[in-house]
Amino acid sequence: MINHSSQNPTRNNCINNLEQLSLLGLSDHCILKFTCNLEIDQVTFADKFNLDKGAYAKLREFLNVNWDYLLDARGNTLDEMWDTFTSLITEGMNAFVPKHLHRSINSKKIQPFNADLRHSVHRKYRLWNHWIKSRNDQVYKNTRLFAIKLNGKLLSLFRKSKLKYRLNSNLTQRDFGSM
């Protein structure tokens, strides 16, 4: 049961239109639908280090310096030693580890639900709302039967995606664990 009402938004008016939706599959967890009103700054994408492609032998050679002399506590403050350390590491990383532009992933391209499954989830939601309004036993039976079928579809999708991931990452069953 929702203790928060959609008529009483949170103190900072961040969450509005809070709704409790039907259960998904055989789960006993509620699905909550709400509107979150947040203002965020423009996200910028920067180059990131491509750590898989680094020339680490050359980086180790570059960092083979007299650290005791560079980080001598007698002549430097802690902040100065930290600045020296980070600037040397950054210089080495910039020289020997290539960068690539970090790009966002378009979520529509990686949508795991196909159109049939999205339609089924929507239909289950409609059936559940119909039962909530009518409290008819036959409608409830139909809703539960449909929920069981939908749960089977979701489990099948999960198994297929798990197998695809395992095949793409060359993991054995033992390496993959009990996921």
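Second entry:
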Amino acid sequence: MATVPNALDLKEGDKAIIRQMDEHLVSIGSTIFIEEAKKGRLNERLHRLAQCNLDPGRRDKDGRTPAIHAVIAGYGIGELECMWAYDLFDVADHNGDLPLHFAVRLSRLACIERLLWHAVKTALGKNAQGLTPIDLVAACGGKEVTERFCHALLCGYIRKGNAEEVDRLAPIVKQGSGECGLDSPAMYTHTTPLQHACWLHATACIQHLLRHGADPNVCDREGLSPVRIAASREDVTAVKALLAAGADPLRKDRLGYTPRSFLLKRGEALKPSPERKCMAMLEAGGKPTQKDWMGSASIPIPSSESKSEPEPEPEPKSERNYAAMLEILKAGPLRKDWMGSAPSASIPIPLSESERNYAAILEILEAAEGKRS
């Protein structure tokens, strides 16, 4: 039988060949997507097949989708990743078996993890015999399958933000072995459940995991600790919870940054430029032609107002005038900005929520570092 052409951008002749191949396979109870999934080549050839306007969800004579065949063949992760986009993880065969049912029966650990990561609800899907994948794990799953299933199920519920299920599963996962315990990394993402929760802003899940004994100082392959992740994600509540649970604010990542030094480095790159400050003044209502305290006009910008009849000049407002702003800054308390710098002779910008979070986290980490040193 002919093979799928290797060109990334197919010509019309190539597309016609692929459609003919698919028609032939459908006539014998299969599809080209299924055959490529069986051979572990669907991930690399999906782009070419997608150009032919074929249905990737078409089933074989037994009602099995390409996702089910990828699990059976054992080519798991890559094949399942490309199938996820087509919502095939919760499509069952004629017997009601989902891809997760097959993954449990065949002990496909990597497939179990990815299926639960993307479609955690399928853990409760019943087949024609009324059995869920959880029932199969309890009935015939060995120790390794059971522990990996529970660990993956916990990560799946964290991804969905289901704090109640996380609270229920965490003590079960804690009893697992070294490779599937509460502080063990997932096979594909290489992050622990606590690190998952920090990346995903799952604050309630973080609190449950810490309460059940998750280690707040376990780092991933890049040396990122949970508090380092939470700080970079601007999660003030998570940073407080992790520090209260004993997280080390001085722990460095592989590049030598502590959570606080990383924020300072990142914040320096995000510091507002003079141009941004000027534009913020104009967006707040300042006129492009209004002169500042040095007698210079603001940066001119296109404006519909400039094409119409000039309006009477309103009374200048102190907050829109450089000279008045300088007087305010001199007379009032010099409040430090989110980078820890005092106001200078420039128009300040109101702090965004992100900048307020940075400021709060920097203060928290500075205080925590002071206690450690």
